[in-house]
Each structure stands twice: as structure tokens, then as C-alpha cells.
Amino acid sequence: MVKSRSEEKIRFGVLDIVRILGGILAFNALLSWWFTSTGTWGYRGRWIDPRYVKFKFSPGYLNLTIAELALYNGSDPKLPIYVAINGSVYDVTKSPGIYGPGGSYHKVSGKDSARVFVTGCLMKEDEFTYDLRGLDQDEAAYDILQWQQYFHNSERYWYVGSVQHDPLTGDPPAPCDHIKYPGRSV
Ligand SMILES: *[C@@H]1O[C@H](CO)[C@@H](O)[C@H](O)[C@H]1NC(C)=O
Ligand SMILES: *[C@@H]1O[C@H](CO)[C@@H](O)[C@H](O)[C@H]1NC(C)=O
Ligand SMILES: *[C@@H]1O[C@H](CO)[C@@H](O)[C@H](O)[C@H]1NC(C)=O
After folding, report:
1. Ligand 3: residue whose CA is nearest its atom 7
2. 74 CA to middle of ligand 2, Å?
3. One domain for residues 12 and 63
4. 158 lies in some domain
5. What pLDDT score does 45 carry?
6. How many domains, in total, are found in the chain?
7. What is the DSSP letter of 28?
8. Which of 30, 31, 41, 151 has its CA 20 to 30 A from that of 100?
């Protein structure tokens, strides 16, 4: 079969464009590497994370149960790490040193620990819960919103969906007399 000239021309044209674009991208990355030691002009945000791009281009959000959320605690390196705050779930996989095993905030991973984000009472085991009873509700609302916005707007983390709370049973955790966020002057 003989290909028509115009067909060949078009194919050639497309290939050329791909080549030129590839060349420009490679040159851009090279220049960027020269000036900033990164291929992306110093940008390290979530848009260069293939997992974020994939999430952004797939439809819908997660809707987990508390039991499902518990799997994403960082102990299985094949799974992402999730942190939840009063029903909102965030992907924090990018910081395994903080949220993974051995990390300083590992205890909030795979859970909705809204309470500890309000009280900052990290030494008290039963604070790692979404039970907000007994807290100053204005303070709780304010702190929770701040933390949610922090994870929402972070360069490293992103919102992935919601978690449905199981009904609360028993008494709320006892009040905690503490320094808020030990080690920090808050
Ligand atoms: C999540 O699932 C629960 C049932 O498990 C349902 O009641 C709720 O409407 C769902 N929420 C979203 C946002 O899909
Ligand atoms: C942590 O996650 C793993 C799976 O990733 C699960 O098998 C384990 O039970 C979880 N730990 C807790 C305390 O939920
Ligand atoms: C926590 O989430 C529930 C359900 O979405 C909401 O009604 C409540 O106001 C939130 N509490 C705080 C303190 O933000």
C-alpha cells in the first residue's frame, strides 16, 4: 500500500511538534536544574506529586468508616497515610517522618483525632478521638477550622474526603491539665 504524500506530511508534522515540545521541556528542566537544583524551578508542591494529580483527575471523594480509616495509619508502606479532623480526611503520605511509624505525630494517623488538635494534650492516650464533649465549643470550632485549613491549603497535603463517625459511647475523656502542645510556647 502506498501512503499518500499528505498523510506522511501530517505524521511528520506531529512528530516534529512532539520533538520540539520535548526539547523545550528538557531544556527548561536543564536550565531550572542549573539555577535552582530542581527540575521544576524550585516548585515542590503537590502538583508534581503523581498521586495528587491522579486524585485530582479521578472523580469523587472518599467516604470512609472509622474502621476503614484505621488502615491508613502508615504501617503499610503501600497504602497512603490519612489524618482526619472532625470528619474531614487529609492525605499526609508526603511526610512519613512526621505521620509514619516513629514520627512525632504518628498517633494521629489513621484516626479522627479532632480532640487532640484542640487540646494539644499529646501525652494523654484518650485524647486521640473525635469526641469533643466537655470542651469549650467556641475554642474547639476555632481550632478545628484552623487545622482543617492548614491541611487543606498545604503544599504537601490534600483533602481526600470524609469519615463517618461511629456513635459516641461512654463518658468523654477526663479534662486534661496541660501545656498546650508541649515543647512549643503556645
Ligand atoms: C457516606 O456514607 C454514609 C453511609 O455510610 C452516607 O450516609 C453518607 O451520605 C455518605 N456521604 C457522602 C458525602 O457520600
Ligand atoms: C494500621 O494499619 C494496618 C494496615 O495498614 C492494620 O493492619 C492495623 O490494624 C492498623 N493499626 C491499628 C492500630 O489500627
Ligand atoms: C464537627 O463536625 C460536625 C459534623 O460535621 C459539625 O456539626 C460540628 O460543628 C463540628 N464541630 C466543630 C467543633 O467544628
Report:
1. 86
2. 8
3. no
4. yes
5. 79
6. 2
7. H
8. 41
Q: In the structure, which protein residues have their CB atom closer than 6 angstroms to any atom of ligand 2?
A: 70-71, 73, 75-76, 79, 110
* Spatial separation of the C-alpha atoms in residues 103 and 75, rounded to whole Å: 11
Within this chain, do residues 57 and 37 fall inside the same structural domain, yes or no?
no
Give how far Cα 61 sits from Cα of 49, 80, 89, 164, Å. 18, 15, 10, 13
pTM of the model: 0.80
Q: How far is the CA of 86 from the centre of ligand 3 (A)?
A: 6
Cell of 121: 494534650
Same domain, 12 and 50: no
Q: Which sign, positive or negative, has the C-alpha torsion 60, 130, 49, 153?
A: positive
Question: 4-61, pLDDT tens digit by residue?
Answer: 666 666 666 788 888 888 988 888 888 878 777 777 776 777 888 889 989 988 889 9
66 C-beta closer than 6 A to ligand 3: no
Say yes or no: 3 and 66 in one domain.
no
